[in-house]
Amino acid sequence: MIIIFCTGLIICSLLCLYRIGRGPTAADRIVSIDILGIVTVGFCAVMTLVTKQDFYLNVALAWALLSFIGTLALAKFLEGRNFDD
Amino acid sequence: MTELFGYILISIGMLFNISGCIGLVRLPDVYNRLQAATKCVTLGTILLLAGAALAVGSGAIAAKAGLCAVFILITSPTAAHAIARGAHSAGVALTDKSIIDRYAEEK
Q1: Looking only at Cα atoms, what is the longest distance across chain A?
Q2: I need a labelling partner for B45 at 20 to 30 A (CA). Which of A12, B70, B75, B85 fits?
Q3: Which residue in chain A is spatially nearest to B85 when comparing CA positions?
Q4: Testing the interface with B: which of A35, A40, A63, A76 to mutate, by most B Cβ within 10 A?
Q5: Calpha distance B24→A55 (Å, rounded)
Q6: CB neighbours (10 Å) of residue B34?
Q7: Which residue on chain B is closest to A81 by alpha carbon?
Q8: Helix axes A55-78, A26-51, angle to 10 degrees
């Protein structure tokens, strides 16, 4: 069962990686990076089923925070502004 | 029984995740991809976290999974809004089939 879940999440990650490599504009790549971060949080949730411990959810919380901040920084960079205004 | 319900929730969330990522690949322009991918993957990941919390059945895991779900529910639309605004300001074109652009009219 966990093998099926991991296979589904790996398929999601490969689709995101396809869009990162192929995407015509920079905005496509930023969207894909955002989605890849959220898929990784789901991966941490599935890994919790394997270990029955809660440390992967700490990883998931930190990953969601860093992915959000990175996406905001990239979106601001896309808008043509610097990081300090 | 609770564990079975958790696995069912994880399966539904996995379907949402895969359909969102297929939308990320198949749809024509940035805004459509953003719409499909953000909504589907947010709901799918929240269902994954809820299913994992139910399947393991521990209090600490449920608390952390709930915190993570609330956090994703807040941050994902914010990031999508920022990306859409940035893409529109950077001049990324809409697809040919789109009929109206309210944001460009309002500016």
Answers
A1: 49
A2: B85
A3: A79
A4: A35
A5: 30
A6: 25
A7: B86
A8: 180
Residue A73 forms contact with B (CB below 8 Å): no
Q: What residue ranges do the domains of chain B occupy? A: 2-92
Distances A80 to B9, B20, B33 between C-alpha atoms, Å = 41, 28, 22
Q: What is the pLDDT of residues A26-76, one digit of tens each?
A: 889 999 999 999 999 999 999 998 888 888 899 999 999 999 999 998 888
* Residue of A11, A49, A80 lying closest to B52 (CB–CB): A49
The first and second tokens of residue B79, run together, are: 């990031």
Domain extents in chain A: 2-78
Q: What's the one-letter identity of residue A16?
A: C
A70 contacts chain B (CB < 8 A): no
Interchain CB contact of A33 with B (< 8 Å): no
Task: Give the global pTM.
Answer: 0.89
Handedness of CA A70, A71, A72, A78 (dihedral sign): positive
Q: Which among A26, A28, A48 has CB closest to B61?
A: A48
